[in-house]
Amino acid sequence: MLIFSEVQDFHPEHVFDCGQCFRWNRQEDGSYIGVAYGKIAHADYDPQSLLLRLEGTSVPTDEDLWKNYFDLNRDYGEIKSHLTKDDEIMAEALRWSHGMRILNQDPWETLISFILSQNNNITRIKKCVESLCSSFGPTIGEYRGETYYGFPEPESLAVLTEEDLAHCKLGYRAKYILGTAAAVADDGKRTLNSIAQSSAEEAHEYLQSLCGVGPKVANCISLFSMGKTASFPLDVWIKRVMNQLYGIAEGDTKAMNAYAQKHFGEYGGIAQQYLFHYIRQIDR
DNA sequence: GCCCAGGAGAAGG
DNA sequence: CCTTCTCATGGG
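The joint structure predicted for all components is written out below.
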């Protein structure tokens, strides 16, 4: 059990149900159970303290790893005051998403998950990812009567055929998964794990060379698993925000990116996540 | 039956 | 460079 005390700017629903991750599920008591870095994790938050129970086989409670996973080294209060300066829209958005934090997830898992996200909805993305894990990932243990599976390694996916993947119902994205798994397995994850230290431009160049990865997915990967906080993923929801709330012409993606760069700057991705969670809450 | 979902790739200007 | 079409799948 890990206990992080005096954690500010954290709300489980904002963190786990904002669309950045697909393997955390809300429990009746408001806590969340998920799988990350090959561990079954049970997270709970009582104002100020984040409690993390880690289950499964060998459980090294690597405090620094999980502290970084939840991005607890970053001062979100300062970022929020910066973003809300002269921005009433952001101030309103934060009433709905003030406890969101950008998780620092595993690059490989994030890569595959967001290839599956294209032209798809979050409920079904979660089913696709879970199906991949239970079919081709390692069994990592049982917790409260449920069996949990880790994310399959590139080598485990690279040897498959489209027929092997058919029951996962990935649609046309199956061949993207196979292509990208082959490329990453061939490279031994080396480039993928090292470009987090490179510039955002270099990271995007490599990511977009992979099958099924375009500008939007590359931005999600670099934001959610490589610490590139300026990355600004432009999806259908954010295009809606930029048009309807910020008044930018519908479809003018260049102007939307330029606005983000100018007004949100190095925290474009964090701003984007606040707005994403906000528009999805009020649009239902 | 239609439209939509955290889009990308291919084809054609 | 840009625009348009197509690509599985499931839910509303």
